[in-house]
Write a structure and sequence with these properties.
It is a single chain. It is elongated, with a radius of gyration of 34 Å. The protein is α+β, with helices and mostly antiparallel strands. The protein has helices at about 1-45, 45-60, 70-95, 130-145, 145-155, 160-165, 170-180, 185-200, 205-210, 215-270, 275-305, 305-325, 340-360, 395-405; strands spanning about 115, 120, 125, 325-335, 365-370, 375-385, 410-415, 420-430. Helices cover about 65% and strands about 10% of the residues.
Length: about 425
């Protein structure tokens, strides 16, 4: 009895596993067939334009030899017009299906500058209106972009590589549908479609990675432009920091020291005639000296916090959390010996994010996580505020992103309306 029950249980388990395997295979075939159809459509878009142009040329060529001019124009315009959309669609599909990100390497447009004369400078020339400046900029950038030749090469090669392979599943279904009356034709067509559907679209990835990635010269040019922008941002940030220090010294400690000198001079004159008044002025001068010293210490702490030098980033952030009006928890797993410039940049970034959460997001709690990976350090700041944080060109979040970019760092913001807000900073760093 027990043996029979075991056999029945084993049979039911085998049937369940077989059914699950069939479902997985069916899902893979259906998913692969849909992806193969998309790849085939992208790969054959430009050849369809060529075929249409040839058909028009054959139809009109018998009457007038010059009628081939229109198909040639159609081929040129259609190929140029479809090359970039096809390449962008291929990148999006690869990122969605396989997680492979192929950089586009397209030349980016510089910002427009509105001059005091009323004209607009777009990086190439002057225009009277902003619309004309944008149109001229887009036309020049598109025409001078070396990525156009790369996209044209890809759209010319795609139909004969990944596009041709991706046509096997829909081609097999088409053969089976057309030859349904002949089993010797329909059955092999279906077998070809089912056997190749899960794999036919995968040829797109190596072809796209090989042909669509930016060339070494393009990558170098982009890197030079990025470093130039980072240098300009660093120069601007440094100048702004120097002005802030100068303003704090002028409005704070310098004013107190001037008042201190006046009080001491007055006390010196009153020492012989009114000693009580002179002693009161000296007490005020001593209080002013103490306040000036406190302001100078606060200013130095804002430039280079002593706790950051003495105890490192993790303990400095913990001290910062204790001074924050938010209920802040800190999870830190950092080794000692991080680069001081990176520690300083991340410390002030965390301080600014906590201040923003308390001042603008109306948060009550925050959590800071500091972790170092094999090649980078990751800092994440979460708060339970109202969210809606959007980086603006002249805002603090954009300034944080520019300061981290000087170290090849990144800043990601997830702040939906209603909260919570999550800011993730990642900076390449190896502990010394």
């Amino acid at each position: 009895m027990g043996t029979l029950r075991a056999r029945r249980t084993g049979t039911a388990l085998w049937r369940t596993r077989a059914a699950q395997r069939v479902v997985r295979v069916g899902h893979g075939v259906g998913q692969g067939f849909g992806r193969a159809c998309l790849v085939a459509a992208l790969g054959m878009a430009v050849p369809c334009v060529w075929a249409a142009a040839v058909a028009l040329g054959i139809r009109w060529g018998a009457a007038n030899p010059w009628s081939w001019a229109a198909p040639v124009v159609l081929v040129c315009v259609g190929t140029l017009g479809l090359s970039r959309p096809v390449c962008r669609a291929v990148r999006q599909l690869l990122a969605r299906w396989t997680g492979t990100v192929v950089p586009d390497g397209y030349r980016q447009a510089p910002p427009l500058t509105h001059l005091s004369t009323g004209y607009w400078w777009n990086g190439f020339g002057y225009e009277r209106t902003r619309r004309d400046a944008l149109l001229d900029q887009r036309r020049r950038i598109w025409w001078q972009d070396p990525a156009n030749l790369r996209d044209l090469r890809f759209t010319a090669i795609l139909p004969f590589t990944a596009g041709a392979v991706a046509c096997l599943p829909p081609g097999g279904v088409a053969v089976a549908a057309l030859g349904h009356a002949e089993p010797l034709v329909a059955v092999p067509g279906l077998l070809v479609a089912v056997a190749t559907a899960p794999y036919a679209w995968r040829c797109l990835e190596p072809v796209a990675v090989r042909l669509l990635r930016p060339s070494a010269a393009m990558a170098l040019a982009d890197r030079v432009a990025e470093l130039t922008a980072q240098r300009a941002d660093a120069t601007v940030a440094q100048a702004a920091e120097i002005r802030r220090i100068e303003r704090d010294l002028h409005d704070g400690a310098q004013a107190r020291l001037v008042s201190l000198g006046l009080s001491l001079a007055t006390a010196e004159r009153l020492m012989a005639t009114d000693p009580d008044r002179a002693r009161a002025l000296m007490r005020e001068a001593r209080a002013g000296a103490t306040a000036s010293l406190a302001e100078l210490r606060e200013l130095v702490r804002g430039i280079n916090p002593p706790v950051l030098n003495d105890r490192g980033l993790a303990d400095a952030v913990r001290a910062l959390a204790l001074d924050s009006p938010l209920e802040t928890a800190v999870d830190a797993d950092l080794p000692p010996g991080l680069d001081p410039p990176i520690e300083s940049a991340l410390y002030f970034a965390v301080a600014e994010l906590l201040a923003n959460a308390a001042r603008h997001a109306r948060a009550t709690r925050a959590r800071i996580t500091l972790v170092q990976g094999p090649t980078d350090i990751v800092v994440e700041v979460r708060d339970d505020g109202r969210g809606g944080a959007v980086p603006r060109a002249d805002g603090g979040l954009a300034g944080l992103r520019r300061r981290l970019a000087a170290f090849d760092g990144t800043l990601e913001i997830a702040s939906p309306e209603g909260g919570p807000t999550r800011v993730r900073m990642m900076v390449p760093c190896v502990s010394s």
